[in-house]
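Q: What would this chain look like folded?
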Amino acid sequence: MMLLNWFIFYLDNLFHLNLDEHGIYPRTLSGFQGVLFSPFLHGDLNHIASNTVPLFILTTALIYFYRDVSLKVLVYGIWFSGLITWVIGRESYHIGASSLIYVLVSFIFFKGIQTQYYRLVALSLSVILVYGGLVWYIFPKVDETISWEGHLAGLITGFVLSLYYKTPEYKKVIKYDWEHPDFNPMEDKFMQRFDENGNFVNLPEVEPDEEIQSNYFSNFPIDYTIVESEKNESKPEL
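A: My prediction, written as structure tokens:
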């Protein structure tokens, strides 16, 4: 996607194709083609450069953490965010991959919170930490040169997709017995060494039965051999 964006931008500037006219022009039949084409069109070098890095990072995160639904999020994210922009947008050409960036930010953030899995929650917080400032550009008149309609459409689309697509329920791997929900500390040998106040106590000693003790030692006969030393003097060993 990165290479395709830059290749189209290069051809547009080299041959002066004026591909901006294939962007989204709201509520017109000819402008409806931009729903599919607009994420691949950019106005100038600063525009495409500012979109390249976040699009690469967010797409990589999406594919790595949500591989099963990543392609669907990308395709439907482009389609529905473009459709919403076509409906609510100003009468101007709306181009650029920023709407898709908002789709990815929204999806990754809300889906991570919904899963309540610590790694994905950490990913959500990282996305907000880095790209949280983007939320201001979904409001009108913050910057007249940007498509706040496309940003808002991307944010809404990402949120809806996070609700629609289900991910596996992530559960913590249980390593210890006390992590089981039905764990009873009264049956645990280690926990029995503590009283109700949490103080360590020794278990009462139980005297073995004489018959059992005699039978036990009878199974292990011991022969003692006394060896008299020829010399009573002991020498230190070096």
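The longest helix spans residues 67-88.
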